[in-house]
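Section 3.1: Structural characterization of target chains.
Under the original work plan, the team committed to producing a structural model for every single-chain target entering the pipeline before any wet-lab resources were allocated. The record below documents one such target. The sequence was received from the expression subgroup and is listed exactly as submitted; it comprises 337 residues.
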Amino acid sequence: MDTLVTGGTGFVGANVVRELLAAGATVRVLARPRGDRRVLQGLPVEIAEGDLTAPATLARALAGVRTLFHAAADYRLWAPQPRALYRTNVEGTRALLAAAAEAGVARVVYTSTVGALGIPGDGVPGTEDTPVSLADMVGHYKRSKFLAERVALEFAGRGLPLVVVNPSAPVGAWDVKPTPTGQMIVDFLRGRMLGTLDTGLNVVHVRDVARGHLLAAERGRVGERYVLGHENLSLAAILDVLADLTGRPAPRLRVPYAVAWCGAACLEGVARMTGRPPAVALTAVRMARKRMFFSPAKAVRELGLPQTGARVALAEAVSWFVEHGYAPAPPRLRVTA
């Protein structure tokens, strides 16, 4: 077996699986017994049932595997029991990498996030080397991914041939859940975005992120991190692109941070009583206080990371969400740049 992909039933992992299959690899996917496997329908992959929180299942999934792509994570900006995020993201990563080392896996690519990196205070895009600490992490998801990345780098320091990739905000096809960025696109298409915050993201085509994983396995230096990103855009600029692609108007109301914070805090209060996720997580609002701008220069230089335009990525995401029934067809749909 060439590869094992954890998180292959998720957004980034599903695209990694497709890139691997296109490259001729044989692929095994670690999937929970009752997990949603829609993104794998019709694909020639082997399913290894297991869970990061069940270490006994990991050795079986890794049997005979040469390359491990660890893209699985508990990606929730709000959880009724935050401990679950640490159990999957930190302890699960530790158990998986220990099993990979025991199995003699030849290469590991660990999927982190730019959320685990530092953001300069002067507006300059962050890099892999921007100083950062656990105290800088906003919310349990980012804290758990920061700690999990440290676990991965510790294994690399002890000899595991591991490379870390840090995707920014991927958009594109197969965002079935969807991710927070994908949900923003869906909300825009449904006319549910009434205002914006003064924030920004680094937008990257999910296909480039998936390709970046394969390039990291092939060319990445052990123990190094690589930002898989492309274009830094304000939220207003992203919505303007979506407006041009779809014919829907972009919201012009700028919501003050304090108002957004209070609204999200109230929603989380209701969520704690009902157990249902809030429409807007307080963590998301707190994260929006800083523009998540990053430079992919290292990955472009060392890995040859593709740089598909953000407009193309957004157009393909819109097309996919409309085609799969997440939102009604907009007044127009420009499927090319």
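The first helix runs from residue 11 to 22.
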